[in-house]
Amino acid sequence: MAMAKEQLIENVVGRVLSLLGEEGVSSCGYEKVDEAVAAAGAAQKAWQWDFSLEARMRVVDRLRRDLLEGDVIREVSALTLEETGMGRLDDKLIKKRLAVEKTPGPEFFATKATSGDHGLVLEELSPFGVIASITPSTNPVASVFNNTLCMISGGNGVVFAPHPGAVKSTLRALEYVTRSLEASGAPSGLVTTLTQPSMENLGLLMEHRGIQLISATGGPGVVKAALSSGKPAVGAGPGNPPVVVDETADLRAAARDVILGCSFDNNLPCIAEKELFAVNCIADELKKHMLESGAFELKDPKDVGKLMELTLRGGAPNKACVGKSAPWLLEQIGLKVGGDVRVILVETPEDHPFVQVEMLMPLLPLVRVADFDEALAASLRAEHGFRHSAAIHSTHVVHMSRMARAMETTIFTKNAPSYASIGVGGDCPTAFTIATTTGQGPTTPLSFCRTRRCLLHGAFRIV
Q: 242-422, superfamily in CATH?
């Protein structure tokens, strides 16, 4: 089965690279920042003023259909895995489909009208103009699909700045996006991208007078640069999401859900469970169910030491290990396990680096605590005040309420895998930019628009 999957990826990627070689860079790609911004700026004006909401809806609906047709999702997912070496193909398929199907569109907007003795006030959401969208290597294509749908739904144009480690997959995804947009009559250039990612070009893009808003998903340096640009910014900050399992939880369900959430795309999502705090009286039973659900426990201190040496560099995750599978990581330290192993489980004290550092790999430290109070205190320390994401498995309403209030995280998940909070089995829109730093939370089309007020004095009140 593993060989068949590898062969499939190789065949798909070969076909994609062949097409790129024959057709050249997509028409949305520009080497120069000025040209990319100018094209998006001209198209955005036409998109804002010449296309009705109904017309925008038709364009967005066709884009969804086109991206879901044929092998598009599988092709770009396989190319992403081949290019970045991170994640799992089956989960990438879910992420891309999720981004297309559950990203809100123009239907998300509503006009607010207020009338009184002095007349009528309308408040509507209006596009910023042209947005610079900086995408990560961890979710490059899902971010492209999600951000494109959000941003153009609000009347904006977009210039993408791909991560250097995911240029080919980003360009291929944008080729499909722009092909659909142009076929449905949207202005050419509404979505563009830089083809030569560099710090210099990124700086030029963020400083460009034609850019009205910056959306940054990536490392702390990129987000800090966006926030220092002097322009409005949507910034996704760091996270280190804890999950608590207390003595009232359904332990079999909790074990399954924690493994599923922690291992999703090999722990690349920023919302995924990164450390587990289990009340001591249920920890052994919880662990038993986790081992039945795809966890492999690493017990030998020598093996744990080898894993630390492999996965940590100077107190930070080893980039060569980010997004790699549990079997791959174990093989590097001399242990061979079956392909059904999804997570490496390691019991540690609270101050262990596996607990305190966001590892971005399917490596889950389990910390035993005396009771819920100790679990909550430890969770607050491990989350480092990022206020990004956290989770709990419990049937104790007071415990759930206390943790939600104390953590103050943008996303808080109860009794489900973490990915339910972005729409996989959860009744909510999806988002691949979780804007904790700038406060927008899981982004929607509303996140990329500004409020405009229009007042008519002395008229249009009918009662």
A: Aldehyde Dehydrogenase; Chain A, domain 2 (3.40.309.10)
With contact defined as beta carbons under 8 Å apart, do 429 and 442 qualify?
yes
How is residue 290 written in tokens?
């986790």
* 31-75 confidence digits (pLDDT tens): 999 999 999 999 999 999 999 989 999 999 999 999 999 999 999
259 touches 291 (CB < 8 A): no
Q: Is 50 exposed, middle or buried (0-12, 13-18, 19+ CB in 10 A)?
A: exposed
Q: What is the pTM for the complete model shown? A: 0.91
Find tokens 């989960």 and name the residue. Answer: 91
The two tokens of residue 271 are: 């919302």
Domain 2-236+441-454 in CATH 3.40.605.10? The answer is yes
Three-state DSSP class for residue 375: helix
Query: Which strands make up the sheet holding 157-161, listed edge to edge?
Result: 29-30, 191-194, 157-161, 130-134, 213-216, 233-235
Average pLDDT, the chain: 93
Q: For residues 170 and 164, what is the distance between their CA atoms, to the nearest angstrom?
A: 10
Question: How far does Cα 316 stand from its chain's mean position?
Answer: 21
H-assigned helices in 89-162: 89-101, 140-153
